[in-house]
Amino acid sequence: MGVKLGILGLGTVGTGTVQLLLDNLGRHPLLQEIEIYRVGVRSLSKPRTVELPEGVITTDLESIVTDPAIDIVVEVLGGLEPARSLILKAIRSGKHVVTANKAVIARYGDEIFTLAEQAGVCVMLEAAVGGGIPVIQPLKQSLSVNRIHTVIGIVNGTTNYILTKMQTEGSSFEDVLADAQKLGYAEADPTTDVDGLDAADKIAILASIASGCRVDLSDVYCEGIRQVSKTDITYAEKLGFVIKLLAIAKKITPSLSSPLSVRVHPTLVPKEHPLASIYGVNNAILVEGEPIGQVMFFGPGAGAGATASAVSSDILNIVAALKTEKAINEEILKQELENKPTSKIALHNQLLTARHQEDCQIAPITELVTQFYARFLTKDQPGVIGKLGTCFGTHGVSLELVVQTGFQGQLAEIVVVTHDVREGDFRKALTEISTLEAIDSIPSLLRVL
Amino acid sequence: MGVKLGILGLGTVGTGTVQLLLDNLGRHPLLQEIEIYRVGVRSLSKPRTVELPEGVITTDLESIVTDPAIDIVVEVLGGLEPARSLILKAIRSGKHVVTANKAVIARYGDEIFTLAEQAGVCVMLEAAVGGGIPVIQPLKQSLSVNRIHTVIGIVNGTTNYILTKMQTEGSSFEDVLADAQKLGYAEADPTTDVDGLDAADKIAILASIASGCRVDLSDVYCEGIRQVSKTDITYAEKLGFVIKLLAIAKKITPSLSSPLSVRVHPTLVPKEHPLASIYGVNNAILVEGEPIGQVMFFGPGAGAGATASAVSSDILNIVAALKTEKAINEEILKQELENKPTSKIALHNQLLTARHQEDCQIAPITELVTQFYARFLTKDQPGVIGKLGTCFGTHGVSLELVVQTGFQGQLAEIVVVTHDVREGDFRKALTEISTLEAIDSIPSLLRVL
Ligand SMILES: NC(=O)c1ccc[n+]([C@@H]2O[C@H](COP(=O)([O-])OP(=O)(O)OC[C@H]3O[C@@H](n4cnc5c(N)ncnc54)[C@H](OP(=O)(O)O)[C@@H]3O)[C@@H](O)[C@H]2O)c1
Ligand SMILES: NC(=O)c1ccc[n+]([C@@H]2O[C@H](COP(=O)([O-])OP(=O)(O)OC[C@H]3O[C@@H](n4cnc5c(N)ncnc54)[C@H](OP(=O)(O)O)[C@@H]3O)[C@@H](O)[C@H]2O)c1
Hints:
homoserine dehydrogenase activity (chains A, B)
């Protein structure tokens, strides 16, 4: 039948996708009906590792998204602009869209999905979260019969690689980061990864799809891993935990209308928890719901092959829907109608599109109820533990564990693990504690899963 | 619109499913369009934990599968008959079918899917493998753009529970089995689980869906866990392995037309492998393909809630397709046709149905190439290790490791781990070795992942 693709971008993901689609034997047979019709890039002179017929590659991206011959636009440019505008224009031109662009979806998802709904087209984004791991589609389909209350992901490979290396080799954040940069696991400017921004984009998307609400990047509370020291990793280990950068979306009460807490932060994960054993650049997404309980998806979070798999699976889903549509239109034409239908019948399966009909409230981080781990450097006065305890007690923070773990120079090091507390209460206690004469500093503050 | 279900069976899975469907707020909104129209059971007098309107429950199962009002038949009876015949009759009556019955699908899948294809209906079976874990649907959709060469599952909770307990508590197979029976994790007659038969059903199904071939239970080579002793678990641990009952479907060469090896056996799994950390009654399925690499799905392999989630997700998929179908038929009727279409247009998305177009060859177990672990009891003669080595050498079996691990009474215990060898060659060597005067017995023989 020939479904025509316009692909925007021929970098890591674009090239991987083109390779997969050109080499289609032994894959789903529907892929054989796809034609790579146009590919948009910035530079025509750059050498490419895939061979495409003369004239397919162009620098005129606008002409792709408006070309009447094209059925599906695949946006794998990255960045906010021109990606966002091209996606919107493609939708307005009646194209289905497949994108790997978490940054655009996390910021402009509302605008994009609203427009797509009006235009009757699908916007698919499996590659935006978890690389090759099928998680968006299972959340929209199989898992959507559950009341999902929790999604927890290790969704950034770079930070998981850094934390894993810090743990297994006892190295410092700075050293591992420098190594990761040399190995190509971290960018020259690592901010997006190490400050949690990439994970924040992804949890906004997962939260939206799991909850049926539109969760925006601005709803996500975000802390990165720069503050995690090897000292903390060692203490955590002794206490039975590993430290992971988790992206969490969780209803804060069991009620159906409970506010959602959506956040990214380094977290102490009990060693026996399934997420504790996810090492290196791998990603994993854990979903909890009623009545299913706990399921987890694990796999490569990035890379040309993994991402190409995700992008192509989105394309495949649309091709299958288009094929049905086409069969029906032909069937209708065969009926020798007097009034032939003038427009195609849109019949994109409701399970392909995300549902965004729910009204949701986002819980401010101060309302989070969690256990905390905090490390204090104190002047080694008698009674400093007593003072800490009193201060916490005043604010209703009860402690599970207080250990004087050793000395750093003149200063004594004290680690505290609380019971479940309201974050707001805990922060008030901390503010007061930080004014105590005996307290030198509070170098780390981590949440416990 | 009202999609009408006929549910066969109201046991663990049936009751879980009915509970989920009756309590549908906060789940996918399409579930609200479902009506539980008939439920078939054996005994009307049995107390039920779900309340259904008068007249819904019946013992006349035949009348359900032929009732023209019913759109979808959900078979959760278990057993081979009458389940198989009722499924076939439902298909002949034009009903879509959802089943959790791995035993029927592994044996009669060919008959059932062929008939379903002719009748233009879907047969869905997410609950048959991996309980609540979405794995069938991802294999049919997202992952099908890959060339999948390997599927490895821990798909039987009972045996994984037993092996986990043997490992963590150092108990014997018999003691743990007795405990598991008391706790309800193992049946009074544990054969189906401990002899690997349940896992064999499941890997036949996974192999079919992943490869696009029809793999039958009779194609599966199967060994259970009765031969696994605590001695082996201890040695395996020392060598860096845990023992798991794995269900494996794997192409034996990289070529597209490679024969498939499909098998269930206890296996030494390297501790750092993702499947090594799957403990207790949990299930996990690992899929490897090109270009995605390795992805793994983890979750509860059984239980009312998990299975209800899987069954309901299959129902949801069909409801979504039916809804599209209905919208189209209405659209067509609106066109004021002269010749109104007399039959419904079948438009079941090709991604819902499994593709079974490939021709496959099953590799006999003798052609498997793998590492082996074997434990020998020998008369403590000087030179016995030399004799073993010579015998293996003659048959082209090279050894990675030979350890005399200790004594059992008068007999010396020797553990051997081979390099990759053809299973046929290894077995010939073993046959010869077992005739050696110095060899008392070969109590265990395990493969290494
Ligand atoms: N890489 C991964 O592993 C991965 C994983 C998941 C998601 N993603 C997402 O996938 C998207 C693409 O990532 P990538 O790694 O493939 O990026 P990339 O390697 O930098 O490739 C970007 C491609 O887009 C083209 N391009 C960029 N801006 C353009 C413009 N203004 N006009 C025309 N062409 C333009 C570039 O053209 P030239 O080739 O001419 O320079 C290049 O072909 C991003 O949204 C990223 O977040 C990537
Ligand atoms: N249990 C799990 O966790 C699980 C997980 C995955 C898959 N499965 C599969 O799901 C299926 C059902 O399992 P289950 O655990 O729900 O079984 P179950 O608890 O034994 O329930 C079986 C139900 O079927 C009815 N039934 C059985 N034979 C019948 C007959 N000949 N005529 C009329 N009714 C009959 C029984 O009726 P009465 O109630 O009147 O006795 C009962 O309601 C099996 O194929 C199983 O392999 C189960």
